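Revision sheet: structure tokens.
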Amino acid sequence: SNPPFHEDLKKNFNITKKIIHESIRYLNFNGELRFVANSCYNYSSILKKTFKKCFVIEKTNKYKIYQAFLN
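Predicted:
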């Protein structure tokens, strides 16, 4: 899904950060997280703080698909 980043008219990435950080509680040992985000925003640095490996597996001028692995 495309995580929310608007709170009224303001940009707020706290919800997306929370989804990323808390996802490890729900993933198996070899689990992975995938999500779609607007291409203009970069979530790689946030993902690298929580996951061992992360990639952009698909990209268009509008969207990126991120994939992150626990191990």
